[in-house]
């Protein structure tokens, strides 16, 4: 069904868990398969690769807020690097979409609701509302 509507979308979101964002095959297969539908004169101008669950850690309640915050931000940065490396390998996709069109977001839903360890702009959720 998504193949029928993807050509008329201005932004496409590809969503996967942060722990497997760069290594899981399915999101990248979706991107590759749909690239020709999006890039050849279609409406799509941006692809947002969204890494979810960036604040899910074992026993994070036992650690200090400062340590958990540092761990989340480090993992978010690494996920961004890993996803961009995978994107750089996709030469056929890059023919249609430049790095400016491909954005990586990390989403910390628990912290977005709690507002305990991260600032709202660090949760990623607010960036996606723009």
From TrEMBL:
<protein>
    <submittedName>
        <fullName>Uncharacterized protein</fullName>
    </submittedName>
</protein>
<dbReference type="InterPro" id="IPR053082">
    <property type="entry name" value="Nuclear_GTPase_SLIP-GC"/>
</dbReference>
<dbReference type="GO" id="GO:0003924">
    <property type="term" value="F:GTPase activity"/>
</dbReference>
């Amino acid at each position: 069904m998504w193949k029928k509507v993807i050509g008329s979308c201005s932004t496409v979101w590809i969503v996967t868990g942060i722990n497997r964002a760069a290594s899981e095959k399915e999101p990248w297969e979706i991107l590759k398969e749909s690239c020709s539908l999006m890039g050849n004169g279609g409406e799509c101008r941006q692809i947002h690769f969204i890494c979810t669950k960036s604040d899910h850690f074992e026993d994070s309640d036992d650690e200090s807020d400062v340590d958990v915050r540092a761990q989340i931000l480090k993992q978010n940065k690494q996920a961004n690097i890993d996803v961009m490396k995978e994107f750089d390998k996709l030469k056929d996709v890059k023919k249609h979409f430049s790095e400016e069109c491909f954005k990586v977001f990390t989403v910390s839903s628990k912290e977005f609701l709690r507002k305990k360890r991260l600032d709202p702009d660090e949760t990623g959720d607010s960036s996606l509302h723009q």
